[in-house]
Amino acid sequence: MTTRLFHISDVHFGVEDRAALDAVARAVAEEKPDALVVTGDLTQRAKHSEYAAAARWLGQIEVPVWLDPGNHDMPYYNLWERFSDPFGRFHKLRAEVAVERFETDDLVLVPLNTNIPAQRRWPWSDGVVTAEAQARTLQEVAGHEADGRWLIVTAHHPLHGPKPGGPNATIGGDAAYSALVEAGIDAVLSGHIHTPFNEYRRCDQGEGGAQVIGAGTLSTRLRHGAPPSYNVLTCTRRGAQAAGEIHVEQRALAPSPR
User: Fold this and answer.
1) What is the pLDDT confidence band of residue 205, given thresholds at 50, 70 and 90?
2) In angstroms, how far is the first alpha carbon of the chain from the final one?
């Protein structure tokens, strides 16, 4: 069996790259992947108008949609709402266009929320893995660890730093990554840095490792010379006669002229 996922991130409706989004929508319609995974930062400032634009675009996608929140998806201008209901607008969108659970004969997706409304550092954009968020994800992983399918955690922020053993902008990321690997996860999908990556990363704490896969951006907020892009994951289930694999194709797109 094989499951194919399209993995996008950091669309940033409000400063989205419309041509890149059109290219992804066409590819979804033509290739019909099993799901579209969006690892956060759907909006630029979490405005109602930006969420409405996201809902219109995602509403045309005719495969299951999986959504994670990003740091840009919490209210930016309304501080009362940011602290009293930081994910209310995101949850409303997810209820309209996305699935709460996704699994196939080959894999299971498990979410990890790496966002909090405020931090003791500035800017507030980098990730934080709280004990509660880590516990929720580990609990869900524990329900699937023995069934032989790929266990793929999805989050907005990478759980690891740019270099093994080096600084990590995600507070609690190293410890969470080690705990998840020990629990049996196989891969982590993320975004945030607007640059795609795909590597096997060993734990800085503990033993073992997992495949870490990052999607680029579909916005005009390009970084490090990377163009708009998205990933196509082909996940082949492990069996008695085969090791299985998660193959990642990175698809670069031409940026829209400014």
Assistant:
1) confident
2) 43
